[in-house]
Design goal:
Blueprint lengths: L14 H20 L28 E9 L4 E4 L1 H4 L2 H9 L2 H12 L4 E10 L5 E7 L6 E5 L4
Antiparallel strand pairs: 1-2, 1-3, 3-4, 4-5
Length: 150
């Protein structure tokens, strides 16, 4: 039986093609490292959705959060957060995630007769007390921060 003819080996890439391929691979790998690091420069430092901390068990909740509405007639109403929001969203509000806090306050302003919405987070740790207030008709909540005295 005669042996079958074999194919010649593939041609080796020439200099410029090899260099372009190397640059493309290096850029791709660098991009894979740099994109996840963008969370470090975000406005909301408490947003840890893309970090390794999301795999750890969350610390015990040490914050008390209260929200209230001020109506045009001067009356104040407490907002039952746990009845309005799903538990994870309550936790995001307690953590002070700006996007969630702003969305919550804007949603509460949609009700008839609401002049202002206030949200206060009191924490037993280094976060201290954070107050968010939105006069209805505005776009972003005004935040005041007071660190708890130890």
């Amino acid at each position: 039986m005669a042996s079958l003819p074999t194919e010649p080996p593939p041609a080796q890439p020439i200099g410029p093609t090899r260099r372009r391929a190397g640059i493309f691979i290096a850029a791709f790998v660098a991009l894979q490292f740099l994109v996840p690091l963008t969370y470090l420069v975000r406005d909301d430092a408490t947003d840890d959705r893309f970090t390794w901390r999301t795999l750890a068990t969350p610390p015990a909740q040490t914050c008390e959060t209260r929200a209230s509405l001020q109506l045009f007639d001067g009356a104040r109403q407490q907002i039952p957060l746990r009845q309005l929001l799903q538990e994870d969203w309550v936790r995001y509000v307690q953590q002070g995630r700006r996007a969630v806090v702003d969305a919550f306050l804007l949603k509460q302003c949609e009700a008839d007769g609401v002049q202002q919405v206030d949200l206060v987070n009191r924490c037993d740790d280094e976060r201290g007390t954070r107050s968010y207030s939105l006069r209805c008709g505005g776009e972003r909540a005004y935040e005041t921060t007071r660190t708890a005295a130890r």
